[in-house]
Design brief:
The chain is built from seven helices and seven strands; from the N terminus they run αααβββαβαβαβαβ. The protein has two domains: 52 residues, RecR Domain 1 (Helicase, Ruva Protein, domain 3, Orthogonal Bundle), CATH 1.10.8; 132 residues, Dna Topoisomerase Vi A Subunit, Chain: A, domain 2. Helices cover 40% and strands 13% of the residues. It starts with 9 loop residues before the first helix and ends with a strand. It is of the alpha/beta class. The strands form two sheets. It has a five-stranded mixed beta sheet.
Length: 203
């Protein structure tokens, strides 16, 4: 039986509250995680604490594409073997990891940092769009693949970007519907990602 909140030592309660702030974690799950930390040897807890600090201190955003990385530019932007004339636009860095698992895409990326969502107060000005336009206007880019998630917000963002990019004289395509409508790239399997990339079409 789960201990009542009143019977939890303050230090354990504080850790539980911190874990509960993570998305998808309710209080019961947070308390189980805190109890697990309590049972772990001190050496492992110290190792965990160091890893958390290392992530905060060492991970940065690539100045070119916005991907998370320990180097700037990131390893994809710095790779001369990638097709820098093709940019795949995604919502978040996690989407890059999912597409890379498919093993078929050899271009580079651009991370928007979200989607246009008026209900949430997120307009185009809050996204990494200006940097994308600068990359496109450099003259090296031939195609932009809009790989926002197939949600109403993702589709609206893709249509907005398509309107901005039409005058650039490049090919603008939308990732194919191999990804389920309402689904996220993060949870798609590699084969589905690969089919979606291969079957992309014009917006």
């Amino acid at each position: 039986m789960m201990a009542s909140q009143q019977n939890i030592p303050p230090a354990l309660e504080e850790l539980t509250e911190l874990f509960a702030r993570f998305p998808g974690l309710g209080r019961k799950s947070a308390l189980r995680m805190a109890m697990t930390v309590l049972r772990e040897p001190r050496e492992r807890v110290v190792q965990l604490a160091k890893a958390l600090l290392k992530v905060k201190d060492d991970i940065k955003s690539c100045s070119v594409c916005g991907n998370i990385s320990q180097t700037d530019p990131c390893y994809i932007c710095a790779d001369d073997k990638r097709e820098h004339s093709t940019i795949c636009v995604v919502e978040e860095s996690g989407d890059i990891m999912s597409i890379e698992k498919g093993g078929i895409y050899r271009g580079v990326y651009h991370v928007l940092g979200g989607v246009i969502s008026p209900l949430d107060g997120a307009g185009p000005e809050k996204l990494n769009i200006e940097q994308l336009l600068q990359r496109v206007n450099s003259g090296e880019v031939k195609e932009v693949i809009l790989a926002t998630n197939p949600t109403s917000e993702g589709d609206a963002t893709a249509l907005y970007l398509d309107g901005l990019l039409k005058s650039a004289g490049i090919t603008v395509s939308r990732i194919a519907r191999g990804i389920p409508v309402g689904g996220d790239l993060e949870f798609a399997d590699p084969a589905t990602i690969a089919r979606a990339m291969e079957g992309r079409g014009k917006v």
